[in-house]
Amino acid sequence: MKIVFSKGAQRDLIDTIKYISKDKPKAALDWTSELKKSVQKLSDYPHLGRIVPEFSDESIREIIKGQYRIVHKIDVDMDTIAILAVHHSKKLLI
User: What is the mean predicted confidence (pLDDT) over 69-91?
Assistant: First the structure.
């Protein structure tokens, strides 16, 4: 499956990298690398992770990376996984 990032998820990712790199530039690079590996796995295993409890929709799932939730939507018809958000777990999703 093809993986695409929504504009919101791109913004989330950039903001998170900037935030982490303020104090720990190397940690930001490491975190980004690990996030990319986790997201790439979705292409072969789109149902990785759990159903997002706030939505209770089988097609909206999340994987956890450290303190961040990577929320994605599976679109079988389009053969696509859309990354919807990279969200800190202490903040409300909706």
Answer: 93
> DSSP state, 20?
H
Q: Which domain holds residue 84?
A: 2-88
* CB neighbour list of residue 61: distance below 8 Å, 6 or more residues apart: 46, 47, 48, 49, 50, 51, 52, 71, 72, 73, 74
Mean pLDDT of the chain: 93
Q: What is the CATH number of the domain that holds 56?
A: 3.30.2310.20
In which residue are the tokens 């961040």 written? Answer: 68
Which stretch of DSSP H or E encloses residue 15?
helix 7-23
Name the residue with tokens 């530039």: 25
Is the model's pLDDT at 77 over the cut of 90? yes
